[in-house]
Amino acid sequence: xxxxxxxxxxxxxxxxxxxxxxxxxxxxxxxxxxxxxxxxxxxxxxxxxxxxxxxxxxxxxxxxxxxxxxxxxxxxxxxxxxxxxxxxxxxxxxxxxxxxxxxxxxxxxxxxxxxxxxxxxxxxxxxxxxxxxxxxxxxxxxxxxxxxxxxxxxxxxxxxxxxxxxxxxxxxxxxxxxxxxxxxxxxxxxxxxxxxxxxxxxxxxxxxxxxxxxxxxxxxxxxxxxxxxxxxxxxxxxxxxxxxxxxxxxxxxxxxxxxxxxxxxxxxxxxxxxxxxxxxxxxxxxxxxxxxxxxxxxxxxxxxxxxxxxxxxxxxxxxxxxxxxxxxxxxxxxxxxxx
Length: 339
Known about the structure:
By secondary structure, this protein is α+β, with helices and mostly antiparallel strands. It is built from ten helices and nine strands. It has two domains: about 5-195, GAF domain (Beta-Lactamase), CATH 3.30.450.40; about 205-330, Alpha-Beta Plaits (2-Layer Sandwich), CATH 3.30.70. It has a five-stranded antiparallel β-sheet with strand order 2-1-5-4-3, with helices on both faces. Strands 7-8-6-9 form a four-stranded antiparallel β-sheet, with helices on both faces. It is elongated and about 90 Å long.
């Protein structure tokens, strides 16, 4: 039986590592399994986490004692592999009981319960596992994970030991929830950045991204002394098109223009954007005027190939675009001017 003072110091040591180490959910589970197993002299430890719909549990992390080097290591690895591919189902098991009750459960002798405890009972029997402990990680009445520990001998688990693992589980629950909140916030910020950087209608980069990227490439190519080319594309009489066919049709056409212009982006460094309204821009780093003109011509031909009727145009019965091309090697004497 472990003394209360010793268990308290161990608990505090684990909590310090979880609090001050920069860990994600998976590594926090792995750290907890290792520390608890080594402290309590358990042979195996596993962490199971629910899927987003909370309909099943899946193996996440495991810790396995190096004492298995006596010849049972291959079986231990097989035990781990079997668990990794098993998901929580309606079968009565220790995992399901802990999930349903949200209470810690100690099984002193698995041979008295067999399949009701283990999904992989035969493998567990071969390894020599005798006892099992299931601990739910709970926050706000929600199971965030379940830790399961195994021993190769039967013993009575004292109250102090249970208090230790429950205290660690409580702190781990708070940590998991914080990490989930951090991930949700990070994803939300990424979505906001995406919205702020791209045009919703065409899925192209927007004016803000265009300006930032242009300045970035201007400075880079100024130092490299290489060409920076720019294509600006303006849909002819687009206002008349909207007046004639309606804004929904105008939106459809802008999407087609975006697709046509995107085809000239040959390299990962090329950027196609919706500059504003019916205006589009293409930034072509490391591209000279000859190549930029060739790509502008490709855009013109692609738009012409669409043959989209434009009865209100003053230059053609079909939709057309006007293109401007510029190419320069950036220098200190030249500067980028905002309109």
